[in-house]
Amino acid sequence: MTSARDGQASMNDILVLNVGGTKFETSRQTLLHDPASMLAKMFDPVSPLQPGVMRDGAYFLDRDPVNFRVILNYLRSGQLILDKNAHLEAVKTEASFFGLAGLEDFVSEKIREASEKDIKEDKLCDEFLLNVGGEIFVTTKETLCKYSNSRLSNIVEGKCRQLFDKNGILFLDEDPKDFAYILRALRNSQNVPTAVPKEHIDNILNLRDNLEIREIKFGYREQSNSFVSEYFLSVCR
User: pLDDT tens across 69-91, in order?
Assistant: First the structure.
């Protein structure tokens, strides 16, 4: 059954919409671009769904005009064009309200991409540079502060005196070759001793103690390939 609108409505009609106090002019054809949407059902001449209250020559829709502009531009061009004041989550809500499934899916994908980008940027921000004896180590603050009571953690956190190089990178006046093993141990599981060259183990243990990270353990391999742990070393001393 056709409505009374059928005899006088045309796809070329120019319609005026009052959306939350802001007026939009568009064609009936644009509003019917997605036949399954609420807007199409509201303004289709053969639809039983009424378009809304007419006020001063405009159909009134009680929705946010900023987000509706995005909806209307999508119906016009098939593209997502964001106003500077529009937000993806709000646009997604409007797309859902108006039954624009294609736009809702498209916006959901954009939200997911934005979220992944933020995560990647956060990871980049987590990157921490440390100058040890002139060699730059790239790690994370979380790794360096793994043991919160250590002197190394306190230096990184700024709880004790800090030194910086000419580029503003935190500086430790220690041997970088020895520190490389300290960092390796911090990256390892707590209960796994880190293997080091036998000839360097005393220096590494001294640096470990100087940085007050007694929780990390070291050892070395003998020529027989047997592993000599720090526990054995402490007994032999």
Answer: 999 999 999 988 887 778 899 99
